[in-house]
Protein: Glycosyl transferase 64 domain-containing protein
Organism: Phaseolus vulgaris
Amino acid sequence: MASPAATVILLAALFGLVSISKSADPQECAAARNQNQQALRRDKVTVLMNGFSESRIPLLHSLAVAYSLSPIVSSVLVLWGNPSTPPRVLRQLARNLSISSSSAPISLLSQPSASLNNRFLPRPSHISTDSVLICDDDVEVDSKSLEFAFRVWEKNPNRLVGLFARSHDLDLNRREWIYTVHPDRFSIVLTKFMFLRARYLYLYTCVGGARMERARGIVDAVRNCEDLLMNFVMAEEAQVGPLLVGAKRVMDYGDARNDGEEGVRVGLSSRKGEHRKRRGWCIGEFHRVLGRMPLRYSYGKIVDDVGEQGLCYKGGKIVFCDHS
Ligand SMILES: *[C@@H]1O[C@H](CO)[C@@H](O)[C@H](O)[C@H]1NC(C)=O
């Protein structure tokens, strides 16, 4: 059962009662449109790390520094999405990041609003690479796997390349789309860690007219599902599914948004059910407003060599991630 609050939001979104966000700053879209694609660097990636929780700042800081030390990283942009964080804390964080012993520059950018669509602003004045790595502030990936995932993306620049996969499916009885995990296939990769062409940020934010505007409005109404919409955008553009890469070592410190999806599945079943229900609803709505279902299945996982091991931090314990 969805909570009453969630139901109200879903109904409000259904009937268009929640204000629909307009596309991004037209100037930013114009600048992105005019960006010289040939001049973008192809040998390095810009890391876009989402930050929200003040309690995770020490972890965010150490992850940002680790990324900045990788030879494939051109710069790290920490995108702060919590509008209620005191400016004093953000000033301190910006200072701390700028003086840390990093290699590539690290900057802190405050999101212009709480909209999750801001995660995919094209930022032509900050991004000068062909690819971006979108990641959360609670997922730690070893440097070799980071580089390997980038190599996989380089060979498949039109696809999303991620470490965490999910699926859409059709519930034939209820005749509705659902969000699920299949053991043998997937059609969605999560923004916990995902490489993509910077061009897709532009397509998500600036292209697609009224249909995409309505789809972005759904993201704002449910405060969720922006990652699913990005998977729609990529599949529509490239006509293929995403790619899944196996990492040697992943620490997933857990994200409230993804609770009940990864690792230990104890005491979270109702939350998990609600989360999945809402994500399934988003898939159905995106299909409805965009007028088609572009998501496609991919199969298998690309691994560097043997010895892959996933570790998840859940409920105070380190456990093996369930990759099945
Ligand atoms: C900044 O660094 C100082 C000194 O290490 C630390 O005490 C403080 O908590 C940090 N603040 C933020 C917001 O990162």
Q: What stands out?
A: The CA atoms of residues 97 and 266 lie 36 Å apart.
